[in-house]
Amino acid sequence: MFTVEERDRVRQRRSNSPRRTPTSRLAAVTGSYAAGQADEWSDIGLAFAIRGELPAALERWTELLYRDFGAVHHWDLPFA
Description:
Layout: H1 4-16, E1 24-30, E2 45-50, H2 54-69
Antiparallel strand pairs: 1-2
């Protein structure tokens, strides 16, 4: 679990990164943060618009989450 400060660092890094990559066309924060109702127990909800092959994009983002942020669990919800 992230502390509030660590979670804010993750959110800041995501918002400072380019929104477009070879596979990601757009990234958005969702959930309690988007509604302005986040608290110390809130997770970080993200949504991505993907161009190209979904499995490659999911692999790239999963690697980043575990490598750069020490993720111990994640959940992908592909939607077409």
